[in-house]
Each structure stands twice: as structure tokens, then as C-alpha cells.
Specification:
single chain; mainly alpha; 5 helices; elongated; about 160 residues; about 70% helix; two-stranded antiparallel sheet
Amino acid sequence: MSLKKKFTAKYFNFSFKNIILFALVWLLTGFALGTLTLLGPVRWVVNFSKSMQYSQSTEDLLVKIVMVLLVVISFYISILLTKVFVKKLTGLKRAIVFSFLILITAGFVWLWMNPEMIQFERGKITEEYAGNVQFVFGPYPTEDDLVRLKSEGYTAVISL
């Protein structure tokens, strides 16, 4: 039996509708799992790397491994969810589950729009100079921080 027939028998048919459904499910689950991955495993890997005094290239490699795992896991979960949508759910149940996925993703979008909610530690503030221009690096500023920075004469805040 061909790989395509095995996949179709186990999961779902390769129709345009099912592929679009899979892409939407992967987008929604990938965004939510990606946020959780950044808040959990990536943060843990970075903190561990710094505590072990690994080089930046080693830390980067470890983070890339975590990100590849995220892609693989979110891909597989999306295949399973698409299978459930196609083979197990109908009408209202399908709409409820899809709405739930959208609601979860919307919650994570809201979290990204309110970064102070995911800022677990304030971090240190450092300064660097390029000629006579001062650059100050620090944690994501709260609304109070922005007011204070403006009163201190800062002219721009760049969020990375």
C-alpha cells in the first residue's frame, strides 16, 4: 500500500477542504503551543545555558532543537485534530471545537498584546554608548515606566 493510501486510511483524505482545515488547525495550535514553548522550554533552556555558561552558539543550537520539536509536535497534533474534525465530529460539535481553538489562540494573542502579563522577572538595565548617543537596554516597560522614561527625556522605546 502506498504512503498516501496509508495516511488517508489512518488520518484523512487529501482533499482541498481537508488540507485547508489542517492548515488552519496547524496555525491555531502552532501559535498557542509556540507561545507556551517560548514561555516554558525556551526560557528554561536559555536560563540553563546561562547558568552552565554555555557559549552563545550552543545556546542557539539548544533553542533551535526546542523549536524543531515544537514544529514536529504541533504538526502531529494538528494531524490528529484534523482527523477528529473529519472523521468524528459533525456540524455543531465541529463548530464548537473549532471555536474553542480560535478562543484559545485569541487568548494567546491577547497575552502578546499585554506583555506585562508574561513578564516573570524584571531583568537588569544596562547602558551602552555609540559616540555621544546613549542606548539603555532593559525589560519591557510598563505604562508607568513609559511615563517615567518620557519625563526623563527618553525619546524612543524599541520593543524586540
